[in-house]
Amino acid sequence: MDRQDGARLLTVPVVSKVDVLGVEISAVDMETTLSLITSWVDNRDSQYICVTGVHGVMESVRDEELRQIHNNAGLTVPDGMPMVWCAHHAGASHVERVAGPDLMLRLAALAATKGWTSFFYGGGKGVAQKLAERLERDFPGFRTVGIHSPPFRELTKVEDDADVDRINASGPDLVWIGLSTPKQERWMAAHVDRLQVPVLLGGGAAFDINAGLVKRAPDWMQRSGLEWLYRLRVEPRRLWRRYLRNNPAFVARLLFRRPVVIDPEGNVEVS
Fold first, then answer.
1. Which of 183, 187, 162 is nearest to 175 (CA)?
2. Parent domain of 186
3. Looking at the domain assignment, is residue 110 inside a domain?
4. 223 inside domain
5. Which residue among 62, 63, 153, 261 is least enclosed by CB atoms within 10 Å?
6. CATH assignment of the domain containing 79
7. Rounded to an integer, what distance in angstroms lies between the CA atom of residue 140 and that of residue 100?
8. Interatomic CA distance for residues 186 and 181, integer angstroms
9. Is the Cα torsion angle 36, 39, 45, 46 positive or negative in sign?
């Protein structure tokens, strides 16, 4: 889709989606994702990006509001290999994994070359600071214009308004949200129209991983869809309930609802 913006003619890629248990996963690869983000920054659009795997889908199955948040996102990228396999099974063979930590690093490199600025919102104490320092070290030219880690409790209206003012005053091109799923998705949907920012991105585990605080699973486990097993071994007390509840339920539900491709016009494609 072409859009006239002053003297510039900007091309905005249009993508299909894959319906996975009612959650519309964007049928993209990394390059298409980066191209879309570039168009949004150039056009000064206001969009948010959900980075979604089995956990996000199953939370959305149980929560209609969260499902709508995912489906209204500018992009809901396939974070885990099960999302990629669902897309391939539906006929979208071009879909590739767009994992949160990888997207952050690729986008940081792009931001460094284009002069885009970033704001980091969330993460545990000191995590966002370590993350920003690491990205600035690894990608010369990467610029951080703000960091804020709000308390884990629900914010008061005064606190929330102050956070919005803080972000807007810094004027970032990208805001990275590290509040974990589903809190970060709800936050993005509630704030996208209040922030004068082109792109909000749900960071999740990418904060800890790219800050160097948590190791990632070996490549073979990532490719095999077993990264969840590695994460469960690393953080069993926090993650056991999530994986033992969601993974079997996800597989069981797929037996009764086959993923399908939805074209940009909203029509179901027959594979």
1. 187
2. 16-214
3. yes
4. no
5. 153
6. 3.40.50
7. 21
8. 9
9. positive
Predicted local distance difference test score (pLDDT) of residue 240: 78
Give the residues of the chain that fall short of pLDDT 50: 1-10
Q: Could you tell me the two tokens for 199?
A: 């792109």
Distance separating alpha carbons of residues 73 and 61, to the nearest angstrom? 16
Q: Do 10 and 2 contact (CB within 8 A), yes or no?
A: yes
Residue 227: inside a domain:
no
Looking at the 3D structure of the chain, how many domains does it have?
1
User: Is residue 171 classed as helix, strand or coil in its secondary structure?
Assistant: coil
Q: Is residue 165 part of a domain?
A: yes
Pull the structure tokens for residue 128: 């966002």
pLDDT for 264: 87
Residue 209: exposure state from Cβ atoms within 10 A (0-12, 13-18, ≥19)? buried
Beta bridge partners of 17: 26, 262
List, for residues 89-148, the tens digit of each pLDDT value.
999 999 999 999 999 999 999 999 999 999 999 998 899 999 999 999 999 999 999 999
Question: What pLDDT is attached to residue 136?
Answer: 97
pLDDT on residue 116: 98
Q: CB under 8 Å to 74, separation ≥6 — which residues?
A: 36, 40, 45, 47, 48, 49, 199
Run of H or E residues at 177 = strand 174-178
Predicted pLDDT at 271: 59
CB-based burial, 123-139: b 16+ in 10 Å, e otherwise: beeebbebbbeebbeeb
